[in-house]
Amino acid sequence: MEVLLHSYLLIGADPAVLNGKVFEEYDSRELAFAHNILTGHPYKVVESLLGSLEVSPTMNDDLTEERLLHSLRDFLSSHFNSRFGLLFAIALLQTFIQNNFTGPLAPIDLNKLLFKDQILSKDLGKLAISLLNAGGQPAYDLTENPLYLILPLLLLELLTKQQSCFAVDSDTEFEVPEVSATSTPGLLAISHWWRARALLAQVSLLHEPAGSQPAVASSILSSIDLAQAVTKDLPQETSQDLKASLYTIFYLENVKCSLAINTEHLCLPSLIKAKKLTNFSLIMTGARAKRTKFQQKAHAGLVILAQSSSNLDASKDLKDSANPDYIALESEILLEKPHFEDIAAEPLDEQIVKKQKVVDGTGVEEDRILPVAIRQENIPTELKDLDPNNQPQLSGYDNVQLLLRLYVIRQTSPAKDPLVEEELAAIISRVIYQQGSKDWTIFSRALWERSIGETTKAKTIERGLLQMQSLVEELGIKLQTRLIPNAPNDEQSTRLRYIHQLPFIPHWDLEATLAEKYMSLGVLKSAVEIYERLHMACEAALCYAAVGEEKIAEEIILQRIANNPKDARAYSILGDIRQDPQLWKKSWEIGKYVNAKNSLGRYFYNPPPSSGLTRDYAAALTHLNDSLRQYPLSFETWYFYGCVGLECGKFELAAEAFSRCVALDSTHAMAWSNLSAAFVEQNKLKEALSCLKRAVASDSQSNWRIWENYMLVAAKMNEWSDVLLACRHLVNIKRDKAGEGSIDLPVVEKLVELLVRTDYPADNDQKLTHFQRSCIEFVCDILPSVITTSSRCWRLVAKVELWRKRPWSALECHEKAYRAVSHNPDIEIDEKVWNATVDACEDLVAAYESLGELEGRHGPGSLVCKDWKYKSRATIKALMSKGKGRWDDSDGWERLVAVRNQI
């Protein structure tokens, strides 16, 4: 029964479900607590449970981080490691999120409730915040009442009986939790789930993910066993919708976790599974649109067609009075809505369609974050009738899926790419412009993301900045103005509804993002003012350093270090400004800050000239190894580690590093290519070829180095079909810049040798093998369009044409081979060129003699070259006229005379 209650708490269900028959005989106090949590009043649970206790944690005068942690852990294990423990942890975490992420502030004093009448140390707040530091990354200084997060983290560690993430020694191996689908009790699995949520909240307080928290959260949310462990203990009469909701939020939170810890390339499988669970119909296509009422002509744009068909959103029935009110399209919030023309209005023959990868011949690209309908007839049936200007309301889960796809695209795509920006704008428009009432959290997040997008365009940057300023005030904890209309009643529940499925954005991050925008525009003063108000000294220093004011930056950092001597990040940034290894070592010593070790690794790999040092591979690898032991989820560090290993000849180390890279991002072509290079050096050619196949299957279609490596390794393995494929791609990639230099002649000669070694079919081309057809197309169709001066290439083409029993084409190739050489202007001054031309002339004359009297292209009765003798003499005569007076006494001249006399 407890598993059922906590399952509803996990999905944030409608509080009305607690009034059902299944909970009639349930403990009324627990039901009241669950109701308070679901209605957005978790602080009432905290107030009730702590207010009923007469004891409190003991606070000493000489309080330290360790003693505070020990005192809180003893207090929780004595009073809350029981039935109410999990509810208490959930209430604390939700109150923390309300205080720091969604607002408004909880109207209770936690210190008074927890410590009763004890006289508290003035440093208690700093000590509490320092407990949330991780991996040398300091938690945000102005975090509102950090005890609301510390207590549930400690309590959930006790409930799950797992190793603590507080003050983990980087030299000890940290054990990540394991959840079994069959043997883990449902309530324990739920405790693990809430612990992952709490750890992600802690990670969001840091400047970047660090420490053991990302690994623990990722291990909990990495396997569907977590949801299966919960659903197996639900009562038999439990609805399938509840179970499906649990699986859905698991996949959504898996994506959120990957985004939070910078492993966003792992998100696609979970997004696809969530889409199938909610039966979400989604497609991106093109349509003409007028973006403003003043625009006379519609222009091409992207539109998302989407429709929900799921009843899984258990919180959808909350009162609409708590949702943002209807907003007129002329308001300053929505501005003007784009008006799309009918998608089917554009004639099919006017649609420009590039050759793209499609699945099952449907014309729909499924293997990407946003499925794309290439042509209008490829739009799924259920979406064809949708009006792009008046699309139906989506369920909360489907809206969350769209926003998560937005974040994945943004983190995996090049910055300021126009097409990517259009895709993101289409997603945001689909979330904002839909019928019906709108969820506060989803709607405000969509408005925020739209504002960020508008600051990247010259025409809308001013409007975007003004909207960001308004949203910062609206989404802040202490509300000053209202941009988003919202009923005041029950507002907390609407703000917390989908908070665990969307990436955490603390309220100070909103202002910091605004400051970044100011900084990108050169508005330094406004950016620094925001950072100073937020007590973000490191960011303010980086602002000054970015504009060349290193001295001011140093002063700010030194002041920060004076006030916070344990700020490892500040030491590291000062080291970056001064390029001082001692400061990086100090940063590592006091906080195990991984960026300090990364900086040391790069310093010893490429020391500045002023240091007087030479490149030290061993030192660089040692520092990078220390960094990776502390934070093993950093793709960039693993990649650099592997590159250094390759360069210094440690190929086993490089193979391990690049294996970790492709595990973190299986679409990174260069990581696969470098992994293959490490395998080649270890003589593991089979593994190397497999890696290169993955590399060329990734985003590497224009990287000629990868295709060249693929060709060479395939040649060593005698995989000639792969060699041919690589040759074709190399020519296509390099032909515009390198011309015939894109042709690898020794490899092509080997391919031709293999081709002509067999007999050409006598009947027709249908008996040709795939290799033969591809090789013929490459040599006889592609190469002639690239060759300009290489007679050697033309002779290869002639060889294949003769094998195809097309002597007339072979003779034409011999003629082109001769012309390629004879047109060289150096023929009159360079004897080597003269002799090469004589050789080509001899070959052409031999070709005339051997091919001229064969059956021609028009069948019996026709000849390849009826007047081959005349053409032979004319060719010799023309060449002798070029060499007369300059090469009369040369060996080449004598050879020409001899050939002429033989005809």
UniProtKB/TrEMBL annotation:
Gene name for this UniProt entry: TDEL0A00510
GO biological processes: fungal-type cell wall organization
TPR repeats: 635-668, 669-702
The keyword 4Fe-4S is annotated on this UniProt entry: no
Record field: transmembrane: none
Record keywords, A-Z: Repeat, TPR repeat
Protein name: Uncharacterized protein
Repeat found in the keyword field: yes
Origin superkingdom: Eukaryota
Cellular component terms per the entry's GO annotation: cytoplasm; nucleus
Name of one Pfam family that matches: TPR_8
